[in-house]
Specification:
Blueprint lengths: L7 H24 L12 E15 L15 E11 L4 E12 L8 E13 L6 E16 L5 E15 L4 E14 L2 E3 L4 E3 L6 E13 L3
Antiparallel strand pairs: 1-2, 1-10, 2-3, 3-4, 4-5, 5-6, 6-7, 7-10, 8-9
Length: 215
């Protein structure tokens, strides 16, 4: 029987070590899969919360000439829940409360709105998604969460979502709100307001967070 080469045993040991390290790597490579494309994702639930700055555009209907205005600028808070599909289309319901400077007629003018809305996100393959949307609903207005009048609201949205993680996005948006209020009288000065049909308009600047949950 011939003699084994003195290099054979070290060579076999090296080959065995290489094989033992490479086998798991191959298995891991076979198990690795790329994440699904945005269009392949299932519909998701998205919750949003935000703060807003409010600026009046047109308020002459509720603020007649010669009287103090009860619908000036201010700030607000809000939140909503949305069902969103992989196409970027979403429908939802939101609540928002505005706290407005009322020229001393009210302690704190408060406008509350509940609106149903639809919106569409663009550029789904990017981390920043511009979007457009619209909503319609009801509003109530009065002094410090009381109800002095009710009305209808139309919201037009334009903004973007910036993904900072898989489930959290930052929201920045402009919302134009057009409202029609029923006529009412402010008790502090006895002024009749929103007499007849008329439209008041506001611009809201929102800063908030969107949290994506399960299906």
């Amino acid at each position: 029987m011939g003699r084994l080469s003195p290099l054979l045993l070290p060579t076999l040991l090296v080959l065995g070590s290489v094989a033992s390290f490479s086998a798991p790597s191959v298995a891991q490579a076979q198990r690795f899969e790329l994440p699904p494309a945005p269009d392949d994702l299932p519909a998701m639930i998205v919750g949003t919360v935000w703060f807003s700055a409010v600026f009046p555009l047109v308020n002459v209907h509720s603020c007649p000439s010669g009287a103090e205005c009860v619908l000036n600028g201010g700030g607000g808070i809000g939140g909503g829940i949305e069902r969103r599909w992989s196409s970027g289309m979403g429908i939802g319901l939101e609540y928002e409360a505005w706290f407005l400077n009322s020229g001393g007629i009210y302690e704190l003018g408060t406008m509350q709105a509940i609106t149903a809305y639809a919106r569409h996100l663009l550029a789904r393959d990017n981390v920043i998604h511009p979007y457009l949307g619209a909503g319609i609903g009801g509003v109530i207005f009065g002094d410090t969460l009381r109800v002095d009048t009710v009305g209808l609201a139309l919201n037009l949205h334009s903004g973007f979502e910036w993904e900072i993680s898989e489930s959290i996005s930052v929201i920045v948006a402009l919302v134009a709100r057009f409202i029609v209020l029923e006529g009412f009288t402010t008790g502090a000065d006895g002024v009749q307001r929103a007499d007849g049909f008329g439209v008041d308009a506001f611009l809201g600047l929102r800063f908030g967070v969107a949290i994506t949950g399960g299906q």
